[in-house]
Amino acid sequence: MIVGVPIEIKNNENRVAITPAGVVELVKNNHVVLIQKGAGENSGFTDDEFVSAGAKILPTIEEIYASAEMIVKVKEPIAEEYGLIRKGQLVFTYFHFASSEPLTHAMLKSEAICLAYETVESADRSLPLLIPMSEVAGRMAIQEGAKYLEKPLKGKGVLLGGVPGVPPGKVLVLGGGIVGTQAAKMAAGLGAKVVIMDISLPRLRVLNDIMPANVVTILSNEYNIKNAIKTADLIVGAVLIPGAKAPNLITRDMLKLMRPGTVVVDVAVDQGGCIETCKPTTHEDPIFIIDDVVHYCVANMPGAVPYTSTLALTNATLPYVLQLANKGWKNACAENAALKRGLNVIAGKVVYQGVADAWNLPMSKIEDFFN
Questions:
Q1: CATH topology classification for 2-119+306-369
Q2: What is the per-residue DSSP string for 229-264?
Q3: Which 8-state DSSP code applies to residue 69?
Q4: Which CATH number fits domain 131-299: 2.60.120.650, 3.40.50.300, 3.40.50.720, 3.40.920.10?
Q5: How far apart are CA 14 and CA 42, in angstroms?
Q6: Which residues, 6 or more positions from 24, have their beta carbon under 8 angstroms from its beta carbon?
Q7: Distance separating alpha carbons of residues 306 and 287, to the nearest angstrom
Q8: Which residues contact 165 (CB under 8 A, 6 or more apart)?
Q9: pLDDT at residue 272 above 90?
Q10: CATH 3.40.50.720 domain locations along the chain
Q11: What does the pLDDT look like over 48-69, one tens digit per residue?
Q12: Considering 96, 198, 233, 295, which one is annotated as catalytic?
């Protein structure tokens, strides 16, 4: 198979979808790997390293899309790429269709095969291709939140860890999954007083056992959230419903309960956000302020640490890329149920319920494409 890796052209997206190590494995399996010139530079991988691994370098994104049978990316295609995607072409990347109606319709129009990292789901309901970036984003949420609590950046002027004689800052984490767990660990490590909320009592029991003493678990409901946001210095939105829009746990009216300079970091923004006032921002212009509350809503947070993120992501994606290249998408998905759950759009039809529900689109039976 011919595998193409374009440069990520989304604002300040510095990751690359394959490393030289991945190229070696694909070439060993008799596949052709096409890398756009400079695609790996921001992640620390040179064109020479890719060539040494066996890849071919092409100068333009148009040539990559025109030549490849499978496109492997990091982030969803943006408008400039829509017209480059061909009928029947397999595109394997993060799509987050439920947060973008234009993207959904563009991919339906392209009649491509859209296989989304974020909905590849194992039998235990874990999301193996979302986990590594969730780990990065959860940890970054505290790093960025702590920065924007600084007064020159419009925050409260609170040091999360405090100092002797001064109490630590208070962090509220909404969601006890991968993002929330990593955020809570980071905040606790800095010495903050942390509250982590989730709707699952079994999950809260697990968190209660593994977290340090400065992390408290509380059942997530509207009443408890309203109470917690009154005193929180940093709030992290970490709620995920795979492939579907995140629920709004904090509404516009609830901002009035927060103290001026409170910082909210909505990691769920690429799935629509769990804070009503959040809208996607970029690393170039990461924050905005509503009702004196600082909103950090960068939709590709791991893109700011591309070396770490690229290695973490490709460690997880490469086995699936190899399966798709070796067997073709139909056979690979027929044999691997987790990979099959990653199919969102096939040949102009929606085959993932969360995407159909998000935009009120007809849902096609995925099995029709395997008969």
A1: Rossmann fold (3.40.50)
A2: HTT-SEEEE----TTSPPP--B-GGGGGGSPTT-EE
A3: S
A4: 3.40.50.720
A5: 5
A6: 53, 54
A7: 20
A8: none
A9: no
A10: 2-119+306-369, 131-299
A11: 999 999 999 999 999 999 999 9
A12: 96
Q: Is 176 helix (H, G, I), strand (E, B) or coil?
A: coil
Q: Which residue from 243, 289, 239, 294 is spatially nearest to 265, judged by alpha carbons?
A: 294
- Catalytic choice (198, 233, 270, 295): 270
pTM, whole model, 2 decimals?
0.85
Q: What is residue 319's three-state secondary structure?
A: helix
Residue 31 annotated among the catalytic residues of the structure: no
Q: From CA 197, how far away is CA 212, in angstroms rounded?
A: 15
Length of the chain: 371
| pLDDT mean over 129-141 | 95
Which amino acid, one-letter code, is at 193? K
Q: Is 324 in contact with 70 (CB distance < 8 Å)?
A: yes
Q: Which of 104, 131, 140 is nearest to 240 (CA)?
A: 131
Residue 335's CB: how many other CB atoms inside 10 A?
A: 11
* CA dihedral (280, 309, 18, 335) positive or negative: negative
**Contact status, residue 98 vs residue 240, Cβ threshold 8 Å:** no
Q: Any idea which residue has 């997206």 for tokens?
A: 13
Longest dimension (CA), the chain: 69
Q: What six digits make up the tokens of 117?
A: 């990292």
Contact status, residue 261 vs residue 156, Cβ threshold 8 Å: yes
Give residue for tokens 């190229």. Answer: 23
Q: How far apart are CA 207 and CA 339, in angstroms?
A: 29
Nearest C-alpha neighbor of 14 from the set 48, 41, 34, 52: 41
- Which two three-digit tokens encode residue 340? 């099959």
Catalytic-residue membership of 48: no
Question: Strands 263-266 and 349-350, how do they pair?
Answer: unpaired
Distance CA 3, CA 31 (A): 7
Confidence band of 244 (pLDDT split at 50, 70, 90): low
Give the pair of three-digit tokens for residue 200. Answer: 């699952």
Supply 240's token pair.
Answer: 């995920």
Q: What is the pLDDT of residues 299-357, one digit of tens each?
A: 889 989 999 999 999 999 999 999 999 999 999 999 999 999 999 999 999 999 999 99
